[in-house]
Specification:
Elements: H1 3-31, H2 36-43, H3 45-56, H4 76-100, E1 103-105, H5 110-150, H6 153-173, H7 184-209, H8 213-232, E2 234-236, H9 249-263
Antiparallel strand pairs: 1-2
Helix pairs in contact: 1-2, 1-3, 1-5, 1-6, 3-5, 4-8, 4-9, 5-6, 5-7, 5-8, 6-7, 7-8, 7-9
Length: 282
């Protein structure tokens, strides 16, 4: 398969994913909110993108086959780190908020806080993984391995992050995903930095483990801790939306540090043709 062939498959996947998800995004924007149905349809659009791409380009497989996408579990230590990494970078973001006095931990007994964290951690991982799987079959199972055939780790992680970020833009601009207390340009910029930064972790662990379950668990953990758990135990002292969630400056800074950490470990990966370093541009 030539580089041109790979890029055609990538373009097909992205185009179908964006087109199919547009139906659910339009429905959600028209309704003024994201429902369970529109969330499910939107988040499983990358799965449809893979399925259609494999129907058009079977590449020696049975037409429409979903094999070779990293369904194996792999080493459990990678799955454990996949859950832990979002806790670390989201926790660091909120620690900065607490220290800066922008927000503070809710005044509740430690047992109630612990119960809240445990409940939503389990719920987020179990239910969240089902929703996240639909995305990660596409982003991690298909897109990342395809990109790694034609570019190095840096390009693979960057492009995964950009494709993932832009896919969310209609919901952000439609005012139904994330805060509306900051300017749209601000949300788009810092959201893109955040999602592209953490994509270095998604791509690295996925390529290292060979399993799409790492990305599925990391995605579910990310959503649980950044959207529910840390916001749920923090009081806003004023202006917190500028710094936290997926649209804030502190989160973006933490994501950049995540990107740097995994970029520095890129030589530990074995990319196509046995190269464990950046593939040369050609």
């Amino acid at each position: 398969m030539t580089r041109r062939d790979v890029w055609i498959r990538i373009a097909t996947f992205v185009g179908v994913t964006y087109a199919f998800s547009a139906v659910f995004m339009y429905t959600a924007i028209a309704a003024g909110r994201i429902t369970a149905l529109t969330a499910l349809g939107g988040m499983w659009s990358p799965f449809i993108g893979v399925l259609v791409t494999r129907l058009v380009f079977p590449d020696g497989r049975r037409r429409g086959s979903l094999t070779g996408l990293g369904w194996g579990w792999g080493r459990t230590r990678f799955q454990t780190w996949s859950i832990a990494i979002p806790i670390i970078y989201v926790g660091a973001t909120y620690a900065a908020v607490w220290l800066a006095g922008i927000g503070d931990i809710v005044d509740l007994p430690a047992t109630r806080i612990g119960s809240f964290v445990l409940r939503y951690s389990l719920q987020g991982l179990l239910i969240g993984s089902f929703f996240a799987l639909g995305e990660e079959v596409g982003w991690q199972g298909f897109l990342v391995p395809q990109l790694s055939k034609v570019t190095g780790f840096t390009g693979t992680a960057l492009m995964r992050g950009v494709v993932w970020s832009v896919w969310h833009f209609p919901l952000i601009l439609g005012g139904i995903y994330g805060t509306t207390d900051t300017p749209a340009w601000y949300r788009l910029v810092f959201f893109t930095i955040t999602m592209t930064g953490v994509s270095f972790a998604f791509a690295w662990i996925g390529l290292k483990s060979g399993s799409l379950w790492t990305a599925t668990l990391m995605h579910a953990s990310h959503n649980a801790f950044i959207q529910t758990i840390f916001p749920g135990i923090t009081n806003d002292a004023g202006g917190m939306d500028w710094f936290v969630d997926e649209f804030g400056a502190f989160t973006a800074a933490a994501a950049v540090l995540v990107a740097v950490f995994f970029w520095m470990r890129r030589r530990e990966l074995t990319l196509p043709h046995g190269r464990s370093r950046e593939l040369p541009a050609r």
